[in-house]
Design a protein that fits this description.
CATH class of the largest domain: Mainly Alpha
CATH superfamily of the largest domain: Transferase(Phosphotransferase) domain 1
Structural class: alpha+beta
Largest sheet: 6 strands, antiparallel
Radius of gyration: 20 Å
Helix content: 25-40%
Protein backbone atom coordinates (compact mmCIF):
# COMPACT_ATOMS: atom_id res chain seq x y z
CA UNK A 1 0.00 0.00 0.00
CA UNK A 2 1.13 3.59 -0.57
CA UNK A 3 2.03 5.54 2.55
CA UNK A 4 1.51 9.29 2.82
CA UNK A 5 4.12 11.65 4.19
CA UNK A 6 1.83 12.22 7.18
CA UNK A 7 2.54 8.81 8.69
CA UNK A 8 5.20 8.07 11.26
CA UNK A 9 8.18 6.12 9.95
CA UNK A 10 9.27 2.59 10.85
CA UNK A 11 11.52 2.87 13.90
CA UNK A 12 9.76 5.94 15.30
CA UNK A 13 8.84 5.66 18.96
CA UNK A 14 5.41 6.32 20.46
CA UNK A 15 5.96 6.15 24.21
CA UNK A 16 6.80 2.50 24.94
CA UNK A 17 6.12 1.27 21.40
CA UNK A 18 8.19 1.24 18.19
CA UNK A 19 6.46 1.65 14.83
CA UNK A 20 7.04 -1.27 12.45
CA UNK A 21 4.77 -0.38 9.52
CA UNK A 22 1.61 1.44 8.44
CA UNK A 23 -1.44 -0.82 8.23
CA UNK A 24 -3.91 1.71 6.91
CA UNK A 25 -4.98 5.35 6.69
CA UNK A 26 -8.37 7.03 6.74
CA UNK A 27 -9.77 10.49 6.92
CA UNK A 28 -9.50 10.62 10.70
CA UNK A 29 -6.63 8.33 11.62
CA UNK A 30 -3.52 6.31 10.78
CA UNK A 31 -3.15 2.71 11.93
CA UNK A 32 0.27 1.23 12.68
CA UNK A 33 1.72 -2.16 13.46
CA UNK A 34 4.02 -1.58 16.41
CA UNK A 35 6.11 -3.51 18.90
CA UNK A 36 6.52 -3.04 22.64
CA UNK A 37 10.02 -1.67 23.23
CA UNK A 38 10.93 -4.02 26.08
CA UNK A 39 8.55 -6.97 25.93
CA UNK A 40 8.62 -7.45 22.16
CA UNK A 41 4.95 -8.26 21.55
CA UNK A 42 3.12 -6.72 18.59
CA UNK A 43 0.15 -4.37 18.85
CA UNK A 44 -1.99 -2.24 16.56
CA UNK A 45 -1.94 1.48 17.32
CA UNK A 46 -4.46 3.94 15.95
CA UNK A 47 -3.29 7.55 15.82
CA UNK A 48 -5.84 10.34 15.68
CA UNK A 49 -4.98 12.28 12.52
CA UNK A 50 -7.79 14.15 10.67
CA UNK A 51 -5.83 14.63 7.48
CA UNK A 52 -7.87 17.53 6.09
CA UNK A 53 -7.32 19.64 9.19
CA UNK A 54 -3.81 18.87 10.48
CA UNK A 55 -0.22 18.29 9.45
CA UNK A 56 2.85 16.81 11.12
CA UNK A 57 5.81 19.03 11.95
CA UNK A 58 8.84 17.54 13.70
CA UNK A 59 6.67 14.69 14.89
CA UNK A 60 3.95 16.95 16.35
CA UNK A 61 0.40 16.97 14.99
CA UNK A 62 -0.73 20.57 14.43
CA UNK A 63 -3.86 22.18 12.94
CA UNK A 64 -3.25 23.54 9.44
CA UNK A 65 -4.94 26.87 10.15
CA UNK A 66 -5.89 28.80 13.26
CA UNK A 67 -9.58 28.47 12.39
CA UNK A 68 -9.16 24.67 12.49
CA UNK A 69 -8.13 24.62 16.16
CA UNK A 70 -11.72 24.31 17.41
CA UNK A 71 -12.44 21.57 14.87
CA UNK A 72 -9.32 19.71 15.97
CA UNK A 73 -10.12 19.93 19.66
CA UNK A 74 -13.73 18.83 19.11
CA UNK A 75 -12.73 15.89 16.95
CA UNK A 76 -9.92 14.93 19.35
CA UNK A 77 -12.58 14.83 22.04
CA UNK A 78 -14.57 12.42 19.86
CA UNK A 79 -11.50 10.18 19.50
CA UNK A 80 -11.05 10.25 23.27
CA UNK A 81 -14.68 9.15 23.56
CA UNK A 82 -13.97 6.27 21.17
CA UNK A 83 -11.04 5.17 23.36
CA UNK A 84 -13.06 5.35 26.57
CA UNK A 85 -15.92 3.47 24.94
CA UNK A 86 -13.79 0.59 23.74
CA UNK A 87 -11.79 0.30 26.97
CA UNK A 88 -15.08 -0.55 28.70
CA UNK A 89 -16.35 -3.09 26.17
CA UNK A 90 -15.71 -6.83 26.48
CA UNK A 91 -17.29 -8.90 23.72
CA UNK A 92 -15.78 -11.62 21.50
CA UNK A 93 -16.85 -9.75 18.35
CA UNK A 94 -15.75 -6.25 19.38
CA UNK A 95 -12.14 -5.14 18.88
CA UNK A 96 -10.14 -5.45 22.12
CA UNK A 97 -8.57 -2.18 23.30
CA UNK A 98 -6.34 -2.20 26.37
CA UNK A 99 -4.58 1.16 26.43
CA UNK A 100 -4.78 4.78 25.25
CA UNK A 101 -2.55 7.81 25.77
CA UNK A 102 -1.59 11.26 24.52
CA UNK A 103 1.64 12.04 22.68
CA UNK A 104 2.79 14.28 19.81
CA UNK A 105 -0.17 16.64 20.45
CA UNK A 106 -2.64 13.91 19.56
CA UNK A 107 -4.11 10.70 20.98
CA UNK A 108 -3.37 7.01 20.47
CA UNK A 109 -5.37 3.84 20.97
CA UNK A 110 -3.59 0.49 21.51
CA UNK A 111 -5.38 -2.64 20.32
CA UNK A 112 -4.68 -6.34 20.32
CA UNK A 113 -2.97 -7.47 17.11
CA UNK A 114 -5.04 -9.98 15.13
CA UNK A 115 -4.09 -11.99 12.06
CA UNK A 116 -6.59 -11.53 9.25
CA UNK A 117 -8.08 -8.94 6.92
CA UNK A 118 -11.07 -6.63 6.64
CA UNK A 119 -14.31 -7.99 5.22
CA UNK A 120 -13.93 -5.46 2.40
CA UNK A 121 -10.60 -7.00 1.29
CA UNK A 122 -11.89 -10.51 1.87
CA UNK A 123 -14.94 -9.79 -0.29
CA UNK A 124 -12.83 -8.27 -3.10
CA UNK A 125 -10.76 -11.45 -3.27
CA UNK A 126 -13.93 -13.55 -3.14
CA UNK A 127 -15.43 -11.74 -6.15
CA UNK A 128 -12.21 -12.09 -8.14
CA UNK A 129 -12.08 -15.80 -7.40
CA UNK A 130 -15.75 -16.74 -7.79
CA UNK A 131 -17.03 -14.01 -10.13
CA UNK A 132 -20.19 -13.56 -8.04
CA UNK A 133 -21.50 -12.15 -4.81
CA UNK A 134 -21.82 -14.21 -1.66
CA UNK A 135 -24.66 -16.59 -0.89
CA UNK A 136 -26.59 -15.95 2.31
CA UNK A 137 -25.62 -19.39 3.62
CA UNK A 138 -21.96 -18.37 3.28
CA UNK A 139 -22.17 -15.14 5.29
CA UNK A 140 -25.08 -15.47 7.69
CA UNK A 141 -23.02 -16.84 10.60
CA UNK A 142 -20.46 -13.97 10.68
CA UNK A 143 -23.24 -11.45 10.06
CA UNK A 144 -25.17 -12.77 13.06
CA UNK A 145 -21.97 -12.46 15.14
CA UNK A 146 -21.62 -8.79 14.16
CA UNK A 147 -25.29 -8.28 14.98
CA UNK A 148 -24.61 -9.81 18.40
CA UNK A 149 -21.85 -7.22 18.86
CA UNK A 150 -24.18 -4.40 17.82
CA UNK A 151 -26.91 -5.59 20.18
CA UNK A 152 -24.29 -5.69 22.95
CA UNK A 153 -23.24 -2.06 22.45
CA UNK A 154 -26.85 -0.91 22.01
CA UNK A 155 -27.68 -2.37 25.43
CA UNK A 156 -25.11 0.13 26.73
CA UNK A 157 -26.70 3.02 24.79
CA UNK A 158 -23.83 3.11 22.28
CA UNK A 159 -24.47 3.40 18.54
CA UNK A 160 -21.71 2.64 16.05
CA UNK A 161 -23.06 4.68 13.08
CA UNK A 162 -20.46 3.45 10.56
CA UNK A 163 -21.13 -0.26 10.05
CA UNK A 164 -19.62 -1.35 6.72
CA UNK A 165 -17.30 -4.07 5.34
CA UNK A 166 -14.21 -1.89 5.96
CA UNK A 167 -15.08 -1.85 9.68
CA UNK A 168 -15.49 -5.60 10.02
CA UNK A 169 -12.31 -7.65 10.48
CA UNK A 170 -12.14 -11.37 9.68
CA UNK A 171 -9.73 -13.18 11.98
CA UNK A 172 -7.53 -15.92 10.56
CA UNK A 173 -7.64 -18.84 10.77
CA UNK A 174 -10.84 -18.89 12.88
CA UNK A 175 -12.88 -16.74 10.43
CA UNK A 176 -14.48 -15.03 13.43
CA UNK A 177 -15.51 -11.41 12.75
CA UNK A 178 -14.64 -8.33 14.78
CA UNK A 179 -16.46 -5.00 14.77
CA UNK A 180 -13.87 -2.25 14.34
CA UNK A 181 -13.51 1.52 14.31
CA UNK A 182 -15.88 3.21 16.74
CA UNK A 183 -14.80 6.63 15.45
CA UNK A 184 -18.38 7.60 14.62
CA UNK A 185 -19.77 6.32 17.92
CA UNK A 186 -22.48 8.25 19.73
CA UNK A 187 -23.57 7.76 23.32
CA UNK A 188 -27.28 8.34 23.71
CA UNK A 189 -26.57 10.71 26.59
CA UNK A 190 -23.37 12.13 25.15
CA UNK A 191 -22.33 15.30 23.37
CA UNK A 192 -23.42 15.64 19.76
CA UNK A 193 -20.67 15.85 17.17
CA UNK A 194 -20.72 17.54 13.79
CA UNK A 195 -17.53 15.70 12.89
CA UNK A 196 -18.57 12.05 13.04
CA UNK A 197 -17.58 10.25 9.81
CA UNK A 198 -20.21 8.53 7.71
CA UNK A 199 -19.94 6.39 4.62
CA UNK A 200 -22.14 6.96 1.58
CA UNK A 201 -24.41 4.01 0.84
CA UNK A 202 -24.08 2.51 4.32
CA UNK A 203 -25.10 5.65 6.19
CA UNK A 204 -28.81 5.89 6.95
CA UNK A 205 -30.74 8.90 5.62
CA UNK A 206 -31.17 10.32 9.14
CA UNK A 207 -27.37 10.69 9.36
CA UNK A 208 -27.49 13.37 6.66
CA UNK A 209 -29.37 15.69 9.00
CA UNK A 210 -27.42 15.43 12.25
CA UNK A 211 -27.77 13.39 15.42
CA UNK A 212 -31.37 14.04 16.47
CA UNK A 213 -32.75 10.74 15.13
CA UNK A 214 -29.73 8.46 15.62
CA UNK A 215 -30.54 5.20 17.39
CA UNK A 216 -30.28 1.41 17.08
CA UNK A 217 -32.25 1.65 13.80
CA UNK A 218 -29.25 3.51 12.34
CA UNK A 219 -27.00 0.47 12.83
CA UNK A 220 -29.84 -1.76 11.60
CA UNK A 221 -29.53 0.15 8.33
CA UNK A 222 -25.72 -0.19 8.31
CA UNK A 223 -25.62 -3.98 8.80
CA UNK A 224 -28.47 -4.51 6.31
CA UNK A 225 -26.65 -2.39 3.72
CA UNK A 226 -23.52 -4.46 4.35
CA UNK A 227 -25.45 -7.69 3.76
CA UNK A 228 -26.99 -6.34 0.55
CA UNK A 229 -23.56 -5.30 -0.71
CA UNK A 230 -22.19 -8.82 -0.10
CA UNK A 231 -25.18 -10.62 -1.62
CA UNK A 232 -25.63 -8.42 -4.69
CA UNK A 233 -21.96 -7.63 -5.44
CA UNK A 234 -23.20 -4.21 -6.59
CA UNK A 235 -22.04 -0.85 -5.29
CA UNK A 236 -24.60 0.76 -3.01
CA UNK A 237 -26.33 3.97 -4.14
CA UNK A 238 -25.19 7.13 -2.42
CA UNK A 239 -27.31 7.94 0.61
CA UNK A 240 -28.07 11.38 -0.86
CA UNK A 241 -29.50 9.70 -3.98
CA UNK A 242 -32.17 7.99 -1.89
CA UNK A 243 -35.44 9.66 -0.85
CA UNK A 244 -35.54 10.93 2.71
CA UNK A 245 -39.01 9.47 3.29
CA UNK A 246 -40.83 6.33 2.19
CA UNK A 247 -42.45 6.32 -1.23
CA UNK A 248 -42.82 4.07 -4.26
CA UNK A 249 -39.99 1.51 -4.29
CA UNK A 250 -39.04 2.37 -7.88
CA UNK A 251 -38.06 5.87 -6.72
CA UNK A 252 -35.42 4.45 -4.37
CA UNK A 253 -32.28 3.14 -6.14
CA UNK A 254 -31.66 0.76 -3.21
CA UNK A 255 -34.72 -1.21 -4.35
CA UNK A 256 -32.83 -2.32 -7.46
CA UNK A 257 -30.30 -4.13 -5.29
CA UNK A 258 -33.11 -5.64 -3.23
CA UNK A 259 -34.48 -7.05 -6.49
CA UNK A 260 -31.07 -8.64 -7.16
CA UNK A 261 -31.15 -10.26 -3.71
CA UNK A 262 -34.68 -11.55 -4.35
CA UNK A 263 -33.56 -13.07 -7.64
CA UNK A 264 -30.32 -14.60 -6.30
CA UNK A 265 -31.67 -15.73 -2.92
CA UNK A 266 -35.37 -15.52 -2.14
CA UNK A 267 -38.12 -12.94 -1.82
CA UNK A 268 -38.56 -13.48 1.94
CA UNK A 269 -34.92 -12.56 2.69
CA UNK A 270 -35.10 -9.58 0.35
CA UNK A 271 -38.23 -8.30 2.09
CA UNK A 272 -36.57 -8.46 5.52
CA UNK A 273 -33.55 -6.55 4.25
CA UNK A 274 -35.80 -3.98 2.57
CA UNK A 275 -37.61 -3.46 5.89
CA UNK A 276 -34.21 -2.81 7.50
CA UNK A 277 -33.28 -0.26 4.82
CA UNK A 278 -36.41 1.87 4.73
CA UNK A 279 -35.54 5.58 4.43
CA UNK A 280 -38.02 6.54 7.14
CA UNK A 281 -36.90 5.69 10.67
CA UNK A 282 -40.48 4.95 11.74
CA UNK A 283 -40.97 2.39 8.94
CA UNK A 284 -37.64 0.63 9.47
CA UNK A 285 -36.91 -2.37 11.67
CA UNK A 286 -36.11 -0.69 14.98
CA UNK A 287 -33.66 -2.98 16.79
CA UNK A 288 -30.94 -5.53 16.06
CA UNK A 289 -32.74 -8.34 17.98
CA UNK A 290 -35.84 -7.72 15.84
CA UNK A 291 -33.70 -7.91 12.68
CA UNK A 292 -32.05 -11.11 13.91
CA UNK A 293 -35.41 -12.69 14.69
CA UNK A 294 -36.81 -11.88 11.25
CA UNK A 295 -33.66 -13.09 9.49
CA UNK A 296 -33.73 -16.36 11.42
CA UNK A 297 -37.26 -16.95 10.21
CA UNK A 298 -35.99 -16.98 6.61
CA UNK A 299 -32.59 -18.58 7.28
CA UNK A 300 -31.10 -21.96 8.05
CA UNK A 301 -28.89 -20.42 10.73
CA UNK A 302 -30.38 -20.43 14.24
Amino acid sequence: MSVSSNALNPGDRIQRYIVKSVLGEGGFGIVYLAEHRWLGYEVVIKEYFPNKAVCRQNGEVLPLFSEEIEFYQNALHRFELECQTLLNLDHPNVVYVYDSFYANNTAYMVMHYEQGTTLDHYFSRFINQHQRGCYWDEIQEPMFCIMDALAFIHERSIFHRDVKPQNIFIRQPSQQPLLLDFGAVKLSSGRLSRYAPRTEGYAAPEQMGGDDYIGPWTDVHGIAATIVRLLSAHMLPYTEERPATDGPAEQDPMSQLIDVVAMNENVALAEVLWSALKPSVKSRIQTIPELQQRLRQVSRYR
